[in-house]
Each structure stands twice: as structure tokens, then as C-alpha cells.
Amino acid sequence: MLHQKLSQKQLQRLSPQQIQLMKLLQVPTAQLEQRIKEELESNPALEEGSNEQEEFDAQEPENTKAEEKDEQVATDELEDIDLSEYYDDDDIPDYKTRSNNYSADDEDKEYPVSVQSTFHEYLVDQVGLLNLDEQEEKIALQIVGSIDDDGYLRRDAAAITDDLAFGQNIIVNADEVNEIIQQIQQFDPPGVAAQNLQECLMIQLEKANENIIIKKAKQVIGKYFELFSKKHYDKLQKQLDLDEDELKIVLDEILKLNPKPGSAYASSSKERQYITPDFFLNNKNGELELTLNGRNAPELSVSRDYKDMLEAYDKSENSKNSNEKQAVLFIKQKIDAARWFIDAIQQRQQTLLKTMQSLMKKQYDFFISGDETKLKPMILKDIAEMTNLDISTISRVANSKYVQTEFGIYPLKYFFSESISTDSGEEVSTREVKSILSDMIEAENKKKPLSDQKLMEGLKEKGYNIARRTVAKYREQLGIPVARLRKEL
Question: Where are the beta strands (DSSP E) in 357-486?
Fold first, then answer.
């Protein structure tokens, strides 16, 4: 049986302004300028630069209504609005988004951008040097377009013939494509257009001046590549009839080759990225001074023209028709949106500073010394409790943000790590353990590198009682291969 009943629920909903703030918190300083430009373009009531004559009521604006209203409802709403609050010049000074966060130490400088030609443009230029007819040139350009940023041609000849047939209506066979691939493999840089590492290294060796060392190196790559890649040096010595010193000379020659020929050139698919720090941290005689980078946060204000329009409308003695009232309501909504955005930018900066100040306090020893072993265990919850902010807010602040110190530029994520207990019961950061582990591996005898078991025993001697599998996990997180692959002759 169907029946109706009343029930009361308490729901937590985010206002549009809260959502806007959360999105802005995620934006790093390097991208904030673009975000502000987008807002300036979409809202004519928002202007860049301060206006000394503009002074606004800084009360929190009323919430906009999500649903669309019909013309009559909009008109009724307008009649209840006190328009004087939108153009009054006698209240609190205008919003400022930069002045309180701008440091005299912030130099007027431009961040560098890459202006060199890209890797693919360099290859295309070389295509023009080949003696090709019109169709062959199109094939060559298709091949060059299929080469990745490392310099490898990951698609085989059959796939490229399909691309030409469906994309450009050019019918060729795999042999014709392979013939042009071989010509492109003679391009600079050596090793370009190879389909795998073995072929890439072999192309480079083929271009080298022939001697006994190069001849042996070709044997290693051509016939014994698997033994070489797995560092089975004893077996290589037997196969090549070389002693240890002779094999080392051959391997040194191979290690001079470039496994990624395209890596020396600017990326063809994306611009080089330069880190713009969100914070500047200076050590002045043991006192840490924190500055928020305000370079990409220009002063913003609400348009004087829009306020003048409201003032003129309010003082008009003529009867106001429906269209005029709709226009004024539109202006009011744009002014409110501009206020909310300016307020969100301010809240963003205050939240960033509050979070970084707490992080700075927690990791004071590191910021003074630059010593990784001074880093304390710290998780998002620790900073959330110190700032009385939500963990999700701290996470947004830490994401993609950087701080510039006298020891270098660090991502904020760098300072967050779990803790482990030493034999003495002291809580230390896992980053400290990783630092010690890295130092142990760097100092090892490369002819007999330390196994994970030996590394575990070494850490235990230093008071860090962790399991072998944990050592392996930390080693992998550091990007360090297993002992066998670290072996050198």
C-alpha cells in the first residue's frame, strides 16, 4: 500500500563559493594567472588593477539561486534590492589581492620559455634534404610523425601503410615504407627511428669508426643483448673470449651510447615545464621568513562602470520597464560574482599561508639545516589539526605547490611521510630511512653490490629495525634497481 509521510533530514551542501574556493586551492601559482584571465574574460564586472575611488561593502554576498527565474520573479526580486550598496563609496576599502602578499624581494622577472625548435621539427627539416619525390616525402613525413619524443618508431611498417591508406589515400607496401625508414635512421641524432633499444644501440654502433672495441660491442648488442641487459658478465666473458678488463672496455663503449636519441631536444608534444614556486622561505639568522608568491595574482576590483550603471538606474525617475529591470538584475549578478571571486582569491592566499606556516613550524629543523635526516614524520592530519582546516583542504594545498628555500625548490608533498620506530623508541620519518638507504647503496662496492638482505642488516645496525620486503619497497620507491643490475666491472 502506498502512503505519504514527512521526514526531516540534515544535509550538508557546499555553496558555489565554497566549490570555487576548493578549485582555486588546487591551482598552483604558475596556472593562477591563466585562471584569473579566464574569469576576467567571462565576467565584465571584474577588472584587473586597483581603483582608488572604489570602496565596497565587504559583507558576505547573498547566495545566488541555482534555478532560473521567470521574468516576473526576477522583477519582484529587483524591487527588494537596495542598489545603493553596489555603488556606495563610504564603506570598507576596496578588496586587495596582491598588496599584502607582495614582497620587495620579489624581482620583476620573466620566467624562461623554450624557444628552440622541437625534435620533430628538426627531423622534418632533414626530410627536405633527402632526394624524394612527392609521394615518398609524404611517406617520410608520416614516419617522422610516428616517432615518439624519445626518438623511437613504435609503429611497424604495416601499421604505417594502413595510416597512409586511410589518412591520406596513399597506397604503398611495407617494403617501400621500410626503405624510407632506413633512410630516416641515418638522420641526426644517431639511433633515431629505431623500434627498440637493441636496434637503437646497433644503429649508433654502425655509425662509429670501426675498430676491435666497436666490433666486440656490435657482437654484444647483436648476439648477446639479453646477457648484456641482465648483466650476466661471466657468461659474456666466455662467449666473447675476453678477460674482465677487456669486457669492461667494451661495455664502457656501449654505455657511451644514447638510449633515448630524442631526449636532448625540446618535446614536440609539450612545452618544457619550469617550476614557479608558490612560497619563498628565507633564513635570516635562524629566523625563517615566509613570503607567498603574489606574482601571478594581480590586484582585482569590481568595475566602476557597472556600479555607475546601477546608480544611474536607481536615480532614474522614468518608469522602469521589464527589460531594464532584467538588465539591472544581470549587472547585480555579475558584481556579486566578481566579489565572490575576489574573496575566493583572498581566502586562497590566506589558506596557503596558514598551511605553509604550520608546515614550516613542524619541519623547522630541516628548513634551517637542509638535512633530510632532520625531517619529522608528518601526515596531512597533523597539519589539519594545527591549522583547524579539513584534511581535504590541506591535501589540495599540498598538491602541485612548491616552496623555494636556500637548499633548493621542494614540492610540499616532499615533507609528508609516515613514521617508523627505532630501537630506542624514537619516531623517525620514512624519508630519513630512505636517505640512509640511498647513502648505503651509493657507498657500496659496485663489483659486489649489497643485496636487500645486506641492506636490511646494515639498517638494523644503525637502529632501524625494518623487514627485508620493506627495504625492497623503499629501494623501488627511490628508483634503485636490484643488486644484480647495479653490478659493475
Answer: 402-405, 408-411, 419-421, 427-429
Take residue 484 and report the three cell numbers written for it: 644484480
Q: Which three cell numbers stand for residue 351?
A: 589558506
Query: How is 294-324 classified by DSSP, letter by letter?
Result: -TT---EEE-HHHHHHHHHHHH--SPP-HHH
Alpha-carbon span 306 to 308, nearest angstrom: 5
Q: If you average pLDDT over every residue of the chain, what do you get?
A: 78
Tallying the residues shown for the chain, one arrives at 489
Is there a cis peptide before residue 377, judged by omega within 30 degrees of 0?
Answer: no
User: What count of other Cβ atoms lies within 10 Å of the Cβ of residue 100?
Assistant: 12
Residue 175 has pLDDT above 70, yes or no: yes
Closest CA to 63 of 422, 432, 362, 333: 333
Sequence letter at residue 145? G
Q: Which residues contact 22 (CB under 8 A, 6 or more apart)?
A: 14, 392, 393, 396
Q: Could you tell me the three cell numbers for 151?
A: 626518438
Q: How far is CA 460 from CA 296, 302, 424, in A?
A: 48, 63, 12
Q: What is the largest CA-CA distance in the chain?
A: 105
pLDDT digits (tens, 9 = 90+) for 124-138: 999 988 888 888 999
Q: Rounded CA gap, 28 and 6, in Å?
A: 47
Between 244-255 and 233-240, two packed helices, what is the crossing angle to 10 degrees?
100
**Dihedral Cα 113, 117, 119, 125, nearest 10 deg:** 170
- Strands of the sheet containing 287-292, edge to edge, are 287-292, 279-284, 402-405, 408-411
- For residue 23, the model assigns a pLDDT of 80
Q: How far apart are CA 38 and CA 20, in angstroms?
A: 14
Cell of 177: 615504407
3-state secondary structure of 3: coil
Instruction: Tell me the CA end-to-end span of the chain in Å, nearest whole number.
Output: 84
Report residue 201 as a C-alpha cell: 644501440
- Rounded to two decimals, the pTM is 0.55
**Nine-digit cell string for 334:** 555579475
What span, in angstroms and rounded, lies between the C-alpha atoms of 459 and 451?
12
Residue 266's beta-bridge partner residues?
118
- The residue type of 362 is K
β-bridge mates for residue 404, sequence order: 280, 409
Region 443-460: mean pLDDT is 87
Cα–Cα dist 405/407, whole Å = 5
* Tally of CB atoms within 10 A around 404: 18
Could you tell me the three cell numbers for 286? 635562524
What pLDDT score does 51 carry? 57
Angle at 215 between CA 249 and CA 149, to 5 degrees: 85
**Phi, psi angle pair for 201, to nearest 5°:** -65, -35
Q: Report pLDDT for 72.
A: 46
- Angle at alpha carbon of residue 300, lines to 294 and 302, rounded to 5°: 165
As a whole number of angstroms, the distance between CA 280 and CA 102 comes to 11
Is residue 19 within 8 A of residue 393, CB to CB? The reply is: no
